[in-house]
Design goal:
Elements (H helix, E strand, L loop, with lengths): L1 H11 L5 H6 L6 E13 L5 E5 L6 E5 L1 E6 L4 E11 L3 E9 L1 H6 L9 H16 L5 H8 L4 E12 L5 H10 L5 E5 L2 E4 L1 E2 L2 E2 L3 E6 L1 H4 L11 H11 L1 E8 L1 H10 L16 H11 L12 H5 L3 H11 L4 H4 L3 H15 L17 H4 L36
The structure holds a DNA duplex (20 and 20 nucleotides).
Length: about 400
Amino acid sequence: MKQAKATLGHLLLAQPLSAYAICNPQSGVFIDRIRITAPCLHRPLGNQAEWRDADTGLVTHAAGGIQQALEEGHADVYVQSKQVSRELGARAILIDCCPPKVLQGHNVFGHAVLQDYVYEILDRVTRVLGIEVRPEDRAMWRAGNVHLTQIHLTANFTCPRDLIVPIIDAVDLSNRSGKQRILPTWMTLGLTPKGRSTYHCVTLYDKLAEMGPYPFPWPTTRYQRMLLAEAGKGFRVEIKLYSQGLKSLSKGLGGIDLEGVANWARVDVPALFFHVFDKYEIVYAVQPVPTTAQITLLKPKELGVFANWLLGRSVKDQFSNRGTAGRYVKVILEKTGVNVGVDRRAEVQPSVDLRTLFSLANVRPVPDLAVRTRYYSPPSVSSATNAEVGANE
DNA sequence: CCGTCCTACATTATAGCCTC
DNA sequence: GAGGCTATAATGTAGGACGG
């Protein structure tokens, strides 16, 4: 298996994509999952079907999805043929997978250069499936002419492990709805009564606990122990962006269309991560206690609203008009630093400043020990020395 | 002035349709 | 039948009117 990986890796590391990597230097924020549709002419995969519409007489062709495990069976890759027709076969391929798991066997860390991950995954998956890729399709991949419908952005924040559950508890208490808490060490926000939001959601969890008691057979190697140790030092936050979210976020980024892979060369991935993360107001789950000086800034009415909130009455409930409520939230936040827009019922809270904890400066980078090993698959620019195998068609 | 509500506009959520 | 797409509903934001 090592052999196969090395061979494929050698062939894969040669794309002339340095510009993409330069725009997204290693910040520690990385891409954990992608769902893409790429041009790729091939024979349809999986179960095939066709049916005729009784009214129009039109014949529709379809192909089912297949789940394929590349390498050691850890990294599931979901593949489906798209744009199926009898004459031409399938003209596009949908792939849903976790690029770090496929390329380096785990997803404790990774990189943020989408174009590189997309090309490497497309190349790897079509090889495994035995698809002969047309040069024009491959050229489209190189140009980033691939449609993105889902992406997960992930960061591990340095955090003492015994604080993870108390912080998740506080976040739990400051959100009354749209949440799911199956495990003490795991929670998701951004759900709707009908399921997940079509925009985005965020998951907070303890990565070491998620990896299970011992993901590797004992005794572990030096690098496997390194992975476990690294996972245990971080508080994991995943932002999942869905098609609707990609669309609406595109507007705010000055018209950069996030559904086009090529456009990610101009996207500041860590900034995007925090832009969405901030919408959940997680840092306000544990709030600072305002000073006396700050309290005296409040006008009598504002003080009353604040006191009511401390007693568990949400600001929205205190006013019939949502505009007025929002206005009070804003002014109290400015004067005291406390966001009374979130629900609050927790009495005992962990003593941490979540604004510092969940900041870019506190994101864990790829550990030095992993660099230049098979446990870290870097953006291809880092392997520019392999450039001579670039033209492999 | 101060506090509240109204209105217009922006953003986000929901639901039903369409495609494969 | 799952998931993306799109029209519509719900909610949030900001400027201004109005009565105290």
